[in-house]
Amino acid sequence: MAGCASVFTPLTPGMPVQEVIALKGQPAIQYPDGNTTILEWPAGEWSQYAYMARIGPDGKLISYDNVRTREQFAKIKVNQFNKNDVLRTIGHPTETEYLPLKKQEVWSYRYKEEGMWNSMMHVYFDGSGIVRGMENGQDPLYLRDGFWGPGVGIGIGSGGRIGGGIGVGIGF
């Protein structure tokens, strides 16, 4: 648990990588990226947060950020980014799935949209690993009975000559 809590500890650019790892624990994943290295720590309920540290060729911290944000997702370029670009931008997916009818692989990322809404971003790849689309929505883990949750609905209908009606519904 100490490793999970420690991802939220702020870091200072210029820190040696050994100090970063001492504070954060061993990263879950490491990505080489040109002359830098990216270290990733998933965090939070269902990995709704993922923090990445970029380490320079001198072994010092360049940046440390939560990459499960709307701003980070917006950096992904449809029809240009490949799987490696996506990994280095938003990290390892929470789930993966293959859609045989569309012949696409989907990487899904749970996150807290605007820090409050349980959301899921889906990134769709073609057979060559190029991003072909993205889709954002509510995280299905937080739906109640497969619906959008509690609510109230009022409907008015007319049956023409046969009759009409008014209905009120409350959902839980």
Q: What is the arithmetic mean of pLDDT?
A: 86
Major sheet description: 4 strands, antiparallel
**Structural class per helix/strand content?**
alpha+beta
Second-tier CATH architecture of the largest domain: 2-Layer Sandwich
Organism: Oxalobacter formigenes OXCC13
Domain Outer membrane protein assembly factor BamE: 66-133
Protein name: Outer membrane protein assembly factor BamE domain-containing protein
InterPro entries: BamE-like (IPR037873), BamE_dom (IPR007450)
Could you name the key traits of this structure?
172 residues; alpha+beta; Beta-lactamase Inhibitory Protein, Chain:B, domain 1; 4-stranded antiparallel sheet; 4 helices; globular; disordered N terminus; BamE-like; signal; BamE_dom; membrane
Description:
The chain is α+β, with helices and mostly antiparallel strands. It folds into two domains: 1-66, Beta-lactamase Inhibitory Protein, Chain:B, domain 1, CATH 3.30.1450; 68-143, Beta-lactamase Inhibitory Protein, Chain:B, domain 1. The chain is built from four helices and ten strands; from the N terminus they run H-H-E-E-E-E-H-H-E-E-E-E-E-E. It has helices at 2-6, 17-24, 70-74, 83-90; strands at residues 29-33, 36-43, 49-55, 61-66, 95-99, 104-113, 117-125, 131-138, 151-158, 164-171. A four-stranded antiparallel sheet has the order 1-2-3-4, with helices on both faces. A hairpin with a 3-residue loop joins strand 6 (104-113) and strand 7 (117-125).
